[in-house]
Design goal:
The complex is a heterodimer.
Chain A lengths: L10 H19 L2 H18 L9 H22 L22 H9 L2 H12 L4 H8 L3 H27 L1
Chain B lengths: L18 H17 L5 E8 L2 E7 L4 E5 L5 H11 L4 E3 L5 H11 L17 H10 L8 E2 H7 L6 H9 L12 E2 L12 H13 L1
Helix pairs in contact in B: 4-6, 5-6
Classes of the chains: A mainly alpha, B alpha/beta.
């Protein structure tokens, strides 16, 4: 028996199993171009560290933690260097464009307070259990659960208001 | 999959990730990994007359060719343990190997000019593989003859094992090793595949 025969999955399988969930999380947190860059940087960093990952690690949580830190770095960099807009961008219409029906919902997720946004995105879109969400956000499982509930309530209000408007 | 709990169905639109965008990101990851020196093993598959072959290469060269009978997923898992888990589907590194194998199956190529990484074979098995490359296209040799050429005339069975565990079948021609009585003997890709290769080379 050889100790190094512990089964390690080929990284391609990690991309298969977790790539879509991490991309959903990135896209919910960031603008599209930033989301794709963050996904790529996350998986490249993960590939670099992968041989040293402990076999009992929660891989999904590990990947989302890397993505989370990169997203925070991006937000900080953007805050440090505000780019003056020539004109206030118009809010995209949320009706009459079937291909993009939920731009408002997407925008709403990005404007949630960070803990609520993180809890909603990592639990509902990336399927991470609450105790892992809590660890990732630096809070307890119970607090992560409450943040998610608050976030969902806020989003549902926005979503319903928006859809009633569209129906009129 | 996305978590769905009562009253959260309205989030479904946020869960959409289109396949085309995702495969674009995968290709970008493979490119960037190769550029950063993080792509320890690249792989792809090719269709051939003996079935879908898995091709895998390190930065040094082709490290593995595998038949469907070996189970490609199992082969990749074994590579993760023995070579490195930094494995990605990345066809670019295998362009030359795919092209030369296509030419071989089209009977326009009689020998391979690929860089090979023989790290999966050691000792006597490695010595056997080195002698296999001396059996010319369209020729055959007996297990006993290969044992003698490898310096251990009595190791006929060990030659059989070395052939069965050849990490680079087709490219290192273990299919050209047959029984002394003229029957074709076993093959890692199955005896049908061995017959196809021998017929292909005989017809050229």
């Amino acid at each position: 028996m050889r100790l190094h025969d512990v089964t390690v999955k080929p990284f391609e399988q990690i991309v298969d199993e977790h790539g879509p969930a991490v991309l959903r999380a990135c896209r919910a947190m960031l603008a599209p171009a930033d989301a794709d860059d963050t996904w790529s940087e996350t998986f490249l960093a993960a590939l670099r560290a992968y041989p040293r990952l402990r076999p009992d690690s929660n891989v999904r949580a590990w990947l989302l933690t890397i993505a989370h830190r990169k997203a925070i770095d991006l937000h900080r960099a953007a805050a440090r260097a505000p780019v003056p807009a020539a004109a206030v961008p118009e809010r995209p219409a949320t009706y009459g464009i079937p291909a993009e029906p939920d731009t408002a919902l997407r925008d709403a997720v990005r404007t949630l307070p960070p803990k609520q946004r993180g809890a909603v995105v990592y639990h509902y879109l990336a399927d991470l259990p609450y105790h892992e969400v809590g660890k990732l956000l630096g809070t307890s499982e119970a607090a992560a659960r409450r943040s998610a509930a608050d976030g969902i309530a806020a989003l549902r209000t926005i979503y319903q208001a928006d859809h009633q408007e569209a129906a009129r | 999959m996305m978590t769905t709990e009562p009253g959260t169905g309205f989030l479904a639109s946020l869960a959409a990730v289109d396949d085309q965008a995702f495969s674009g990101l995968r290709a970008r990851l493979a490119d960037e990994a190769a550029r950063e020196g993080l792509l320890d093993v690249a792989y792809r598959t090719i269709d051939t007359p003996v079935g879908e072959l898995l091709l895998a290469a390190t930065e040094r060269g082709l490290v593995r060719v595998a038949y469907p009978a070996e189970n490609h997923d199992a082969v990749l898992s074994a590579l993760a343990g023995r070579v490195s888990p930094r494995i990605l589907h990345a066809p670019a590194r295998l362009d030359a190997a795919a092209r030369e194998l296509d030419e071989y199956f089209a009977r326009t190529r009689h020998s391979f000019g690929l860089n090979l990484d023989l790290q999966l074979a050691r000792g006597f098995r490695l010595a056997v593989l080195e002698h296999l490359t001396e059996i010319g296209y369209g020729k055959t040799a007996s297990y006993a003859a290969v044992a003698a050429a490898s310096g251990s005339p009595a190791a006929v069975r060990a030659v059989g094992t070395a052939c069965a565990r050849n990490p680079l079948p087709v490219v290192i021609p273990c299919h050209r090793v047959v029984r002394s009585d003229g029957s074709i003997g076993n093959y890692v890709g199955g005896t049908d595949a061995k017959q196809v290769l021998l017929d292909l080379e005989a017809a050229a």
